[in-house]
Amino acid sequence: PHIDSSDVRHQFAVSLGDFQGGGELCVESMEDCSKVFVVETKNRIAWADGRAIHWVRGYSGERFSLIFYCTDPACSQPLEQSCDLSWHPAGQLNSSEE
User: Fold this and answer.
1) Cβ(79)–Cβ(30) under 8 Å?
2) What gap in Å lies between CA 87 and CA 66, rounded to an integer?
């Protein structure tokens, strides 16, 4: 587990590759450290805040991560929530909305 101390706001993450049996992004809740959000990032983009404690679940195979983050103080936002599971890219529906 780690935090991304240079981040100044949330980040977007996606994982790619031929991997199985895990690989989800795990993010500790800001409100309750015993609660962990398990975020599926395989072939989909997700919203999380790297300033919260996070890690990747174990997996087998080859996995690549693309993380889009900001370190510019001019773009800084307060750390209010560690993860937003309801977020989805514009034009992409959640499975519950289909």
Assistant:
1) yes
2) 18
Q: What is the largest CA-CA distance in the chain?
A: 39
How much is the pLDDT for 83? 84
* Burial classification of residue 11, based on how many CB atoms lie within 10 Å of its CB (0-12 exposed, 13-18 middle, 19 or more buried): middle
Task: Return the closest-CA partner of residue 3 out of 41, 40, 33, 23.
Answer: 33
**pLDDT per residue as tens digits for the range 17-54:** 999 999 999 999 988 888 999 999 999 999 999 999 99
Q: Which two tokens stand for residue 65?
A: 């991560």
The answer to whether residues 61 and 20 touch, using CB atoms and an 8 Å cutoff, is yes
